[in-house]
Specification:
heterodimer, A: 300 residues, alpha+beta, Alpha-Beta Plaits, 2 domains, five-stranded mixed sheet, 12 helices, 22% strand, B: 213 residues, Chemotaxis protein chec, seven-stranded antiparallel sheet, 7 strands, 28% strand, globular
Chain lengths: 300, 213
């Protein structure tokens, strides 16, 4: 084997060559060891015979544009996770079932500069993807309550706002605030206040649907983002939060400390020009609820 | 003084514009046939300036775009240089719907930006490949490309440093309009090339014309 051949066989990257009919022409040792399929068995076969799930419009288009126009094409881990369904290389528990891959496709030309084949490179990026996931989680959760933090909420709100502008999807938000929270802190201490914050957020997190998001917005203020939800059902949900918290028994060091919440609800509409404006509207409604006696839901 | 052989005359500019329109017509036909992307490409004007003037030119021309996305790709052949394809912010999201696969359904929350970046890369790659590839093909050259780089939605002031381009290089400015599915997406295509490439281009332009004389 020549020097280049040795590199191709030992490099820590999967390398595949496909001919114009998408038959496999080359399958390096990395691909052999991760797929469990030997080069002898797979070379000459159509790639879709062994990997039928690869036959997607995006993959087909990528191959055609590489073979016809000499373009490059990429399959990022973030969007596609993987091209080839391999097990993760590490035997330790991983949050991913499959090896996460970053793949690229490029043209191969003969001596006359005519494209005769394409190559695919496959990089294992599972470990990176795991680190990234851990960092992201640390970045989007509130340390005390374990629910989402304000940064994450604002990001999701922008996404929902954009979805609304593009597809006119409904969505609503609920702003809520623990009534007389300062009194809890002043009378029972901040540890007790923290306990109440955790207790209230856990209760609400147990009520919301899978598609909703609850975040700690500020001190004792929370915000709940409800995708695909109109004002009516959102107000109904807010009312359920209110009764659930009013009926919640918080026992802290043998003391029962009952709290109530006030809530403001608003729905996205064409008149609302920014995500901030939507929150402002919910905030206004929240203050209405506060001013009209607390422990209630208000809508502007 | 730049030697005359590196300066493009009005006549040459006209030939170039004509060839670009033929090239774009052919490129559009290929895109429709091979990958089902229906795009009408047109070149309202062609201009040749010094590459060093390009940053100012871009800032001036696209000042109505507060944010832009850029796809940059180098090409190698007799004709050699780099291509910059510039879209206004938001174009990437519009382009997503052109690619009729269900990528969007599989996208996790919060990754629209990623999808946009990948779409820009794919479409940019296709358009640059089609434009540069067809132009050089008509002129009898074959070019290969570097992988594209994408910069998504930045302020133009921040991403085009004045010292990016070599003093001796020329920039061929083509204002291009990409019309997809009844929607106009304005883009600018800039090709920066070295003096040798301009010399080759001039000779090839006359060579191309000679076929019809």
């Amino acid at each position: 084997m020549n020097e280049f051949g040795q590199i191709l066989e030992t490099i820590n990257i999967g390398l595949i060559i496909l001919d114009k009919e998408l038959n496999i022409r080359y399958w390096n040792r990395w691909m052999e060891s991760h797929s469990g399929i030997s080069a002898g068995k797979i070379v000459g076969a159509p790639v879709f015979d062994f990997f039928p799930a690869l036959n997607t419009p995006k993959f087909q288009r990528s191959c055609k544009s590489v073979l016809t126009f000499g373009n490059f094409s990429y399959f990022s881990q973030k969007l596609h996770h993987f091209l080839f369904p391999f097990k993760t290389a590490s035997s330790f528990g991983s949050r991913f079932q499959n090896m996460q891959q970053s793949c690229s496709l490029g043209p191969l030309r003969n001596g006359d500069n005519v494209i005769t084949a394409l190559y695919i490179t496959v990089q294992d990026v599972t470990e990176l993807a795991e680190y990234e996931h851990k960092l992201l989680e640390m970045n989007m959760k509130d340390g005390l309550t374990g629910i989402y933090n304000r940064r994450f909420l604002e990001m999701r709100l922008r996404d929902e706002f954009e979805r609304h502008t593009r597809y006119s999807r409904q969505f609503s938000v609920i702003m809520l605030d623990i009534d007389f929270f300062k009194k809890v802190n002043d009378s029972f201490g901040h540890q007790c206040g923290d306990f109440i914050l955790k207790s209230v957020s856990a209760k609400i997190a147990s009520i919301i649907r899978k598609t909703d998001f609850i975040a700690r917005y500020g001190g004792e203020e929370f915000c709940c983002l409800l995708p695909e939800t109109a004002l009516g059902p959102a107000t109904g949900l807010a009312e359920r939060f209110r009764t659930a918290i009013a009926g919640l028994k918080n026992v802290y060091q043998d003391l029962e400390i009952d709290v109530t919440i006030s809530l403001g609800v608003s729905e996205m509409s064409p008149e609302i020009s920014s995500p901030e404006a939507l929150l402002q509207q919910a905030d206004k409604a929240l203050y209405m609820a506060k001013n009209s006696g607390r422990n209630r839901v208000a809508v502007l | 003084m730049v030697p005359a052989e590196y300066v493009i005359t009005d006549e040459e500019k006209e030939i170039l514009q004509e060839i670009m329109n033929i090239a774009f017509g052919k490129a559009a036909a290929d895109l429709a046939e091979v990958i089902n992307i229906f795009v009408v490409l047109s070149v309202p004007y062609v201009k040749v300036i010094k590459a060093a003037e390009l940053p100012d030119y871009i800032r001036h021309e696209i000042r109505d775009f507060s944010h832009i996305s850029i796809v940059e790709q180098n090409f190698w052949g007799e004709f050699k240089g780099s291509a910059l394809l510039i879209f206004p912010a938001g174009a990437g999201k519009e382009l997503i719907s052109l690619l009729d696969d269900d990528a969007e359904a599989s996208v996790e929350s919060g990754s629209i930006d990623l999808l946009e970046k990948e779409t820009l890369m794919e479409i940019g790659n296709i358009l640059i490949g089609a434009c540069v590839g067809k132009l050089t093909e008509l002129l009898g050259d074959v070019v290969t490309y570097s992988p594209p780089r994408v910069i998504v939605e930045n302020n133009p002031r921040e991403i085009i440093p004045a010292n990016l381009f070599d003093q001796d290089y020329s920039a061929i400015v083509m204002k291009t309009v990409f019309r997809f599915d009844e929607r106009d997406i304005n883009g600018f295509l800039f090709l920066t090339t070295n003096p040798e490439s301009i010399k080759w281009l001039k000779e090839s332009l006359y060579g191309f014309l000679a076929q019809y004389e």
